[in-house]
Each structure stands twice: as C-alpha cells, then as structure tokens.
Amino acid sequence: MSRIAAIKPFGQRIWLDNLSRGLLKSGELARLIQEDDIAGVTSNPAIFYKSISSDPLYTGDLAELKKQDLTAEQRYEALVVPDIQATCDLTAPLYRDTKGLDGYVSLEVSPHLANDAQGTIDNAKRLWAAINRPNAMIKVPATSAGVIAFEELIASGINVNITLMFNLVHVDDVLNAYIRGLEARIAAGQPVDHVRAVASVFLSRVDTLIDKQLEAIGSAEAKALQGKVAISFVKVAYQHYKKLFHGSRFADLKAKGAHPQRLLWASTGTKNAAFRDTMYVEELIGPETVNTVPDATLDAFRDHGVAADKLETNTEAAVEVMAQLRKLGINYNLAGEQLQVDGLKLFDEAFDKLLDLTK
C-alpha cells in the first residue's frame, strides 16, 4: 500500500488539486487513482491557466475555437468542460462503488461573480447542465453572495464545493446554509440522498499571513505560535462540524437520506521551507474529511509522509493557540476576511489571464 493510500482507513479521502488534458491522456491520473487511492479532483482558474498555457494538447482545439464567433469565456468553457466530463467518467466507478461518497470533480464558477448571488446561481446551473455528470461539483466562493447562491444550489439538487473559507464565520455560515438548502429541498418534496457538498478551508495562506503578524510582534510568545495557527483553526472548525452534523438538528435530515457536508482542507502545500512539507496533510487526517493536495505535496507524502489519525489530537492546545492570538491583539476573523479578499483577487487575475489566452 502506498503511503497516500494508507490515509483512507482513517476516514479521510485524498483528492488531487490539479487537472490537465495531459494528465488525463497520459494515464497519469488513472494511475494515481489506482495506486494512491486518489478519490477526486479539484480545479480552479490558476490550475487551468497553467494547463492551457503549457499543455500542447489544447493548442489545436483552441486554434479551432478562435475561428468561431464565441466570447473568450465561451472558448474557455469549451476547452475545460470536456476535461471535467472525461475526469468525471474516469472517477465514475469510484462514485458508483462508494454510493456517492467518492469520485467528485470540481469546476469553478467565474470568480467575477463572487459578489453576485443570482449571477453565481445562473452560472453554476449552466455549468452543471453542461457537464451533465452526477459526480461533478460546482465550486462557489464563500462570500456573502456565494453563501446565498450555495443555499439555493443545494435546494436545487446541485453538488457544490464551496471554497475560500478562512475563519469560523465562514465555516458556520456555510454549514448552516447547507442545512437550510436541504430543508428547503425536503419542504419542496424533493429527495436529498444524492446531494453532496464539501466546504473548502484554506490552510497555508493562513500561516503565511498570521506568521508575518507574529514576527512583527516579536515576543517569544508570538514566535512560538508561528506555523501553528492554520492547523489549530482547522481542529477547532472540525469540532463545529461534528457538533452540527452529529447533533439533533441534522439527525432529522439524515433520517431522510441527507449526507453531512464534509470539510475539505485546501491550500495544503507548505509555503514556508522551515515547515515539514507534509504537515498540512499529516496533522489533519481524520474521519469524514477530504484533503485536496497539489502534485508536489503528494510526491512528498508518497516519499516520507506518515498516515495517522491526528485531527482530534491536541484539540485543547488548538483552542489555546487561538486564544493566545486574541491576547496578542490579532483578530483572526478579520484576517480571514482579508485572506478571502486576497484569494478572490488571485482567482480573478488567473481567470483574466485565462480569458486573454482564449480571446
């Protein structure tokens, strides 16, 4: 068994945070599924910009699309929707064999719609229809408008990966919106047993920002927290998840066939060379969760990662880390809002570069 596949017995699924036509055509993605138990795939504008700009398998199709009277966004979608469909088809046996737990492939709505609830709903429904696969997930940002759209999409029976979550306000808003969407669907007499969602919590960007603030404070107490905040936050967020989805409110929905909205760890490649390169995987393995991992981190874990159930270890220490942040004058919720804004800006920029490619 590979070190990556050894994570699965602890109840966590590993997804690949990458997608390209070359990855599909070469058989590499199929190999990862077979050998490492990769159970899903995520994409984003930055990933597709890198793929389309560097993978020669897109060149001919893009040249043909540029001869057609289409917008840049229509050309982009004409390139990537077939890749999403092909990946969904590749992972369909996982989806079938696990009764809808595994095998999901995510495509993001236009980041330009991050503050437009109705625009996000319309874009998500159009992409969902275009992909036309039950194991697709539409990615929506966890902005205020995105949470409104997310609730409506769940009520409509669309699988969603809601992303760019950085603080407990984001987590609680998203998880409760999911439940409201399921409740609305049941009230409308619609089934909920096939509806799935994940809530993507970002890690490395948290430590990148907070560690700079801790360094500026400069005290021994502050420096002792460096590299610990993102993991501590996730451990606290997981307790919120358990309280909600293993409590009485969700019990009624579960009896009607509903599934919990799993937390997903994203941005799990370390950005600080001083940290262990597998720490955002190793420290957060636990039941009913997903970790979407970039290639380099997968390679590192395959080489020297250690699979163990650690998500609920040192929970009290994690709570204390967050309390110490407050004592040092760092407003974590405010930092989370800034990180979401910054994340949206990066996706906007990547999407604009994508559209420049397909003009």
Automatic annotation (TrEMBL):
Keywords carried by this UniProt record: Cytoplasm, Pentose shunt, Schiff base, Transferase
Enzyme Commission designation: 2.2.1.2
NCBIfam families cross-referenced by the UniProt entry: PRK03343.1, tal_mycobact
Similarity field: Belongs to the transaldolase family. Type 2 subfamily.
Subcellular location: Cytoplasm
Catalytic residues (positions): 139 (schiff-base intermediate with substrate)
Pathway in which this enzyme or protein is active: Carbohydrate degradation; pentose phosphate pathway; D-glyceraldehyde 3-phosphate and beta-D-fructose 6-phosphate from D-ribose 5-phosphate and D-xylulose 5-phosphate (non-oxidative stage): step 2/3
Pfam families membership: TAL_FSA (PF00923)
Matching PROSITE patterns: TRANSALDOLASE_1, TRANSALDOLASE_2
Protein purpose: Transaldolase is important for the balance of metabolites in the pentose-phosphate pathway.
Catalysed conversion reaction: D-sedoheptulose 7-phosphate + D-glyceraldehyde 3-phosphate = D-erythrose 4-phosphate + beta-D-fructose 6-phosphate
UniProt cross-references to CDD domains, sorted A to Z: Transaldolase_like
Record flagged with keyword Transferase: yes
Protein name stated in the entry: Transaldolase
Primary localisation category: cytoplasm
